[in-house]
# Entry
Amino acid sequence: MATWGVLAAGLLVVVVGILRFKLHAFVALIVAAMVVALLTPATLISRSSAREAIDRSAVFDSEAKLFTVDGALDGFPIQEYLIVAETADGVGMVRFGQVTQELEDSDRGKVYGFELLSGVDSNSLAKPLSLSVLSQAALESANQLSGESCISRLTKALGSYCGKLAILIVAASIIGRCLLESGAADRVVQSAVSRVGEKNAPVAFAISGFTLSIPVFFDTVFYLMVPLAKALRLRTGKNYLLYVLATVAGGTMAHSLVPPTPGPLFIAEAFEVPLSSMILGGCLVGLISASVGMLYAVWINKRCVLELSEDATLAQEAMESKPSGGAAEDRRPPSVALALVPILLPVILIAAGAFVSGEMGSRVFLGVRVSDGFAHALKVLAEKNTALMISAAVAVVMYVRAVRPTGQRFQTVMQEAVSSAGTIILVTAAGGAFGRMMRQANVAEMLEGLPSTSPVMLVVAAFFVTTAVRTAQGSSTVAMLTSAGIFGGLVTSGAAGVDPLYVALAVGCGSKPFAWMNDSGFWVITRMSGMSESEGLRYVTPMTALAAFAGLGTVIVGVVFFP
# Structure
């Protein structure tokens, strides 16, 4: 089956499985991955795997029958390297020659001679669209993969993504649960509101929502902050809609853009974006998007009034019934500074590791010469798994000091945190496996062949594909996983000519429009705040859409001016 047909079949299974048959996201993604794996011919599997294994680019001189590569071909005998070309009159990748000897060292790099394979016209290779080098070993590995069964390829991909994400997601889940149980999250919100005053309370709600949604799921953050919004509404007699929308504006963008929330964490992995870059880029785009959302919230608040209703009291009841280690008056929440440590520590550690450069014996950190031991230690601490584990340990200590839980209660809290992470790991790993099967179907090459696939067009396409899937089935995370499967191979191969960070951010923004009744978050917002469904569609849906498109605009500016 052609790649288009495989792609359509996979997407259809995901969307119909979730919407029509109400399948769990894990089941729908695994079934879709299996369908794609079954429908993908062996030739496409070997072709796509070979493309991903391409070593480096080359330049071809058809008259001299020589080609130049950027640097020597180390690691294999020269005879085991193949030249790979894509020409205007040939579809895709053509193996047209084998390296026979190293001729000379020139200003352009290493120059090698080759002989053409039979049946290949050298004149058609005068101006190839791309020219690359592939090792024979990589080609043999690709051919071996194409001979494996579909279930073998699927289980290997599932295990690979579980291994990449398990520690990260469990650590993030523990951090979020400890912030809630210790009262640290509540302390951050109340401190922000008290410092800025009632007049600037909406800004405090937005900032608090954004900050807390980095390690804590948006639904939980909203549960936490709605009672405070209700209390301020009772005190001031106005601006309840503004308080609610400010919380949504801040929290919803961080949820899809800033790791270690599972969605953006997975996107960073899928597009091979360094976690430090994803965190910094996500914060920048997220804050701009949230600011646009806030402007809409201020505008609509002047024209509409959201009244308190009996449904809104559910928020207070939910907070009062939330389990804790002891009575509320016995709990000793940490200071604001300490409450922020589990949130900011992994960001600081991961970012610090990005500033270590140089070779052994000449390591540099922030422009200062440092010892190899210091540089190595910092690199270890900055590794994403290590950074999140350290932050989780700090959060656990903070929880124990604040609550003094019994052994049974401590065990229950940790077990619930890990159990909730388990479902997320399965869904994200299934999304990764689905994406891997899509990549093996050679989706990347198909997208490369589309007309006008400029960096800006690719970013826009990634945004709208994510938006379409999210609107159809309601889950931001599933939408991001699906887009990663479609665009991952193209972006990571470098053929798209765009920084993977921009595509990852566009996918994150694309998961925001359009919130409606098939989205669990939509129901959380409306039920907890007391909105009706029509009010949710009038207030929440336009705001998240505007914020998302503002994020897309920001990403496009980055692509154009900072490629």
